[in-house]
């Protein structure tokens, strides 16, 4: 009996406090988009409609989690001097897989997001998590970190897409919600609209959390 | 932690082989499905120019109607053989057309082979007469390629419907050329003014009233995409002009 409890203490619980923090931190206090200000380029490019944004979120989640896992598994074998190119190779391969699968099984969606899926390779969040976390942590923790970071990214771009599609096209998921009399706001259709909305999200979040950038 | 050069190079080589092999396997195994999807999607786009009400129907259903009611001919009215049709790419033919036009401008002999301009005949339910002629088109918008299917009624003068698609126009602006309401603006317009060809022109700006029978309302904020669209429509209608000027009866005799 007693030996069992010792063993249990040694191995950490599947969702210990520390691990929960790995997931929840990037959602709010350490959000990749609003606090670290990473991945802004794709947040501007894909968010004019909700559907491609959702597909993009799923694709980024897949790429971040698996690249984190693979890099974490290989972290002790990857040569330090070429680690960036190795990470890039892994990320790029995963992105190509996502793109190919979309083209084969979700052709209509891939026609819309096809151009942007390739952009995941250059999404700083992916590389950022690999460098900052996966290179130094165990696989399971890295998966949780990838989950947290990609969800932190996903909720921000989904909120942006919600407002942009609503105000820019008067629709949600291509279903008309605003009356026909509503004149579409062209500013929201263009990437400038995303800047304004992201700015507002950052403003509201910092006001709520009292976050101040270190000088 | 400093590794030897041999280790670094070895790692890079192994990684390249593993990733390259993985990607090649995946691309190879998905290739057939992807080609099938593209073929289905092309058939759908062609059919939507004459049957816009099918836009929500499953692609397989649309493809079945396509196989039954579409006959592909060339500008001389001869049926294009299926094996030739399979290899025919509108994009490649467009590039050849461009080459020829460039050569003509420079007064040189064009170096490319013959251009095949297909026409998709949309036959009536029993196959006895042609209900519409669908002309495929290809061009360049603002950022990337655009293409479309331009369906004319049996009189070869008035538009039955159009479908435009694009690779990378700005969402919400130029990308609207693939929206139904924008494409509907072409329906019923005429491409002939008396006896001379007058390609339909998309005007600059949106919300115009009193447009002629050869003009359609434009897209605000997407003038450059509309320009590309106009160039494409003009270029192809001119290419097809000899065919369009032949009476409808001449074609049905050639069948």
UniProtKB/TrEMBL annotation, chain A:
Location(s) in or outside the cell: Cell membrane; Endomembrane system
Enzyme class: translocase
GO biological process, one term: sodium ion transport
Record's catalysed reaction(s): a ubiquinone + n Na(+)(in) + NADH + H(+) = a ubiquinol + n Na(+)(out) + NAD(+)
Record carries keyword Glycoprotein: no
Principal subcellular localisation of the protein: membrane
Segments passing through the bilayer: 54-74, 86-106, 112-130, 142-163, 183-204
EC code(s) of this entry: 7.2.1.1
Any one Gene Ontology molecular-function term assigned to this protein's record: oxidoreductase activity, acting on NAD(P)H, quinone or similar compound as acceptor
Quaternary organization: Composed of six subunits; NqrA, NqrB, NqrC, NqrD, NqrE and NqrF.
Function: NQR complex catalyzes the reduction of ubiquinone-1 to ubiquinol by two successive reactions, coupled with the transport of Na(+) ions from the cytoplasm to the periplasm. NqrA to NqrE are probably involved in the second step, the conversion of ubisemiquinone to ubiquinol.
This protein's name: Na(+)-translocating NADH-quinone reductase subunit D
Species name: Flammeovirga pacifica
From TrEMBL, chain B:
Superkingdom assignment: Bacteria
Catalytic activity, EC: 7.2.1.1
Residues recorded as bearing FMN phosphoryl threonine in the entry: 223
Compartments where located: Cell membrane
The protein's enzyme class: translocase
Transmembrane segments: 6-27
InterPro entries from the UniProt entry: FMN-bd, NqrC
Membrane topology annotation: Single-pass membrane protein
Signal peptide residues on this chain, from the entry's feature table: none
Keyword Magnesium: no
Keywords: Cell inner membrane, Cell membrane, Flavoprotein, FMN, Ion transport, Membrane, NAD, Phosphoprotein, Sodium, Sodium transport, Translocase, Transmembrane, Transmembrane helix, Transport, Ubiquinone
Catalytic activity, as annotated: a ubiquinone + n Na(+)(in) + NADH + H(+) = a ubiquinol + n Na(+)(out) + NAD(+)
Chief place of localization: membrane
Family the UniProt entry places it in: Belongs to the NqrC family.
Function field: NQR complex catalyzes the reduction of ubiquinone-1 to ubiquinol by two successive reactions, coupled with the transport of Na(+) ions from the cytoplasm to the periplasm. NqrA to NqrE are probably involved in the second step, the conversion of ubisemiquinone to ubiquinol.
The protein's name: Na(+)-translocating NADH-quinone reductase subunit C
Natural source organism: Flammeovirga pacifica
Phylogenetic lineage: Bacteria, Pseudomonadati, Bacteroidota, Cytophagia, Cytophagales
